[in-house]
Specification:
This protein is α/β, with parallel strands linked by helices and 247 residues long. The protein is built from nine helices and seven strands, in the order βαβαβαβαβααβαααβ. The longest helix has 29 residues, at 104-132. The chain is globular and about 50 Å long.
Length: 247
């Protein structure tokens, strides 16, 4: 479904991002994954190589909260491959600090990665996509962008911002054949969920009509669809993958 497309996936070393990288490789794309440390990038690349030595994947670890570093990384990908067809903004952090313990620094830390870094990758990539005649940008939102969450206010606020950015850019970039969508996962079995208090996870799962948490592959399937030509007339969509029965 993605034969010969070039994809960049941030936060691609584990969890949902790693599942997206694998799904894209399985479908013929060449993938550049971004991670926060060289060590985790190398580990992810080794695992991919072991699964299929023919897959074309490489990794980088620019500081996503530094616009200049991100621009340099994107420029080097453009130089090597001549194009970027798919950008997945998936790197993100979650936290659940109660408001009375909140600090401005914590709020900034979440916003810097979950919102500003998304903008920092989009800025250089849209210029490349416009010049080549189009592309697909997919951001990772969350079910909390619809319902909020009872503690850790920066996280849902950041994902509401991701939705706003997605819908607005979809409207602005349609004329350049650049589609912009987001996937809003529910509780998905990754390290991020393992870090939540057990009680919180249990409470959330008891509300899921499909009766189970999501697997990273459930979410990656939605990223495959939105990246592919099957979604050629879909833009500005926030696609829930949360088993909730609510849109
Ligand atoms: P994870 O913690 O397993 O992986 C997070 C990824 O982000 C890793 O690849 C990590 O390298 C990268 N990352 C973290 N901090 C970084 C930094 N400072 N700089 C660069 N990269 C950094 O998490 P996950 O569950 O796979 O989450 C991926 C995305 O899915 C996030 O945007 C998250 O908000 C979203 N999400 C997850 C769930 C869930 O239940 N797991 C639900 C809804 C949304």
């Amino acid at each position: 479904m993605l034969k010969d497309k070039v994809a960049v996936v941030t936060g691609g070393t584990r969890g949902i991002g790693y599942a997206i990288v694998k799904k894209y490789l399985e479908n013929g794309a060449k993938v550049v994954l971004f991670g926060s440390r060289q060590e985790t990038v190398d580990k992810a690349l080794a695992a991919l190589k072991e699964e299929n030595p023919a897959w074309e994947a490489e990794g980088m670890c620019p500081n996503l909260t530094d616009a200049g570093e991100v621009e340099t990384a994107i420029a080097s990908i453009q130089k090597k491959y001549g194009r970027i067809d798919i950008l997945v903004n998936n790197a993100g952090i979650s936290e659940s600090t109660p408001i009375y313990q909140y600090t401005p620094e914590l709020f900034d830390r979440v916003m810097d990665l979950n919102v500003k870094a998304v903008m920092y990758t989009i800025l250089p990539v849209v210029k490349i996509m416009k010049e080549q005649g189009g592309g697909s940008i997919i951001n990772t939102s969350s079910m909390v962008s619809r319902y909020g969450q009872p503690a850790g206010v920066a996280y849902p606020a950041s994902k509401f911002a991701v939705n706003g950015l997605t819908i607005s850019l979809a409207r602005e970039l349609g004329k350049d054949n650049i589609r912009v969508n987001a996937v809003a996962p529910g509780v998905t079995r990754t390290d991020m969920v393992a870090a939540l208090p057990e009680q919180t996870v249990k409470a959330i799962c008891s509300q899921i009509p499909l009766g189970r948490p999501g697997e990273p592959e459930d979410v990656a399937n939605a990223f495959l669809y939105l990246a592919s030509d099957l979604a050629g007339y879909v833009t500005g969509e926030i696609l829930s993958v949360d088993g909730s029965g609510r849109s």
